[in-house]
Amino acid sequence: MARPLPDILRIDWTTGAEPSAAVLAAVDRAAAVLREGGLVAVPTETVYGLAANALDPDAVAGIFRAKKRPTGNPLIVHVADEPQARRLAAAWPPAAATLAAAIWPGPVSLVVPKAAAVPDIVTAGGPTVAVRCPAHPVARLLIERAGIPLAAPSANRSEGVSPTTAQHVLTSLGNRIDLILDAGSCDRGIESTVIDCTVTPPRILRPGPLARSAVEAALGGPVAWPEQGGGDRPVIERSPGQGRRHYAPTTPLELPNDPAGRVAELLAAGKRVGWLVLTTLEAARGLAASRELVAVPMPTEPEAYARQLYASLHALDQRQLDRIIVDSPPAEAGWAAVRDRLERSGSPG
User: CA nearest 118: which of 153, 146, 82, 78?
Assistant: First the structure.
């Protein structure tokens, strides 16, 4: 007999207000599922995460099975506050203390030496663990009510486009999970910035909503940031999202040098094309008469673009297209996280 689809519990909670009895009941039900070793999709300010008890290796193994995620890809552990994070660390480097005080709760994960209590399956067998205190009130309330830290990668099949709505989660994972908490769309839209605090200077392992300049301002000094693909990758990863192919839609995605020309070429070949338009709006208007083209104008500010990116890719993936073409984002530092996601989503692996 097939496993039933997960229940979806809608969370209506006005920012700044006390949680209602209905909100507490929904969160407490999710907390009970987690304490029993189950899997719950939970909203954060970045993307929806697939949560399990981070201290229960069997529960964490369920994440890998549901996502079909390689076990060499470590997980980020979500905590309610800095004291809970410190209990997961064998040491708390000065950079971690500074960043946690300046930025948490927020979209930043800190890599620190792991404590013995953290199962090896969480860290891919490595000596470090990435911890994050999310800013989303539902995520923090869930951690507090469950009384446990939560391992929570994005709530989607491995290498796929991360979910920013509960419907994205349901479409990707279906009956592989136990419960979904639906609090609407995620504010940030892309995954957290990951910073390795075990090295000097600290190193950004994955760009995210918090820009390099903001990290350096918080630390009062420089941070390292290797270019994608530069140098040898470590045998054991310290951060998720390091694979060449990641965040990818089912439809093949390209970032050509001449997007308008590539779209015209594909249309001439009888292909159905989706196009995320940023810098070629006039050219897109010239091709818009084609019934085989779905053109999506994208925001010209990086934060707004990031917020819309995954939702746009999910929508295009439902249109049975032959190709998705994306205008390359600007080379400015503020676009680094968007560029990272697009380059990985278009990689053949």
Answer: 78
For residue range 150-183, what is the model confidence (pLDDT) as tens digits? Answer: 999 999 999 899 999 999 999 999 999 999 999 9
**Nearest CA among 192, 201, 240 for reference residue 95:** 201
* Gap between the Cα atoms of 216 and 295, Å rounded: 37
For residue 240, is pLDDT > 80? no
DSSP 68: T
Give the fold, CATH level 3, of 253-345.
Rossmann fold (3.40.50)
Question: Any idea where the domains of the chain sit in the sequence?
Answer: 7-90+113-192, 253-345
165: CB partners within 8 A, 6+ apart:
48, 182, 184, 185, 186, 311
pTM (2 d.p.): 0.93
Q: Round to whole Å and give the CA distance between 35 and 286.
A: 56
How many Å apart are CA 193 and CA 110, to the nearest integer? 9
Cα–Cα distance, 289 to 263 (Å, whole number): 13
Instruction: Indicate the Cα dihedral angle 251, 255, 259, 263, nearest 10°.
Output: -20
| Strand stretches in the chain, DSSP E | 7-10, 40-42, 49-53, 76-78, 108-113, 128-132, 150-151, 179-182, 193-196, 203-206, 253-254, 273-277, 293-297, 323-326
User: Which residue(s) pair with 203 in the sheet?
Assistant: 196, 224
Q: Which residue in the block uniquely carries the two structure tokens 């993307």?
A: 47
pLDDT confidence bin for 246, thresholds 50/70/90: low
129 closest CA partner among 185, 76, 54: 76
Average pLDDT, integer, range 55-62: 98
Task: Say which CATH architecture domain 7-90+113-192 belongs to.
Answer: Alpha-Beta Complex (3.90)
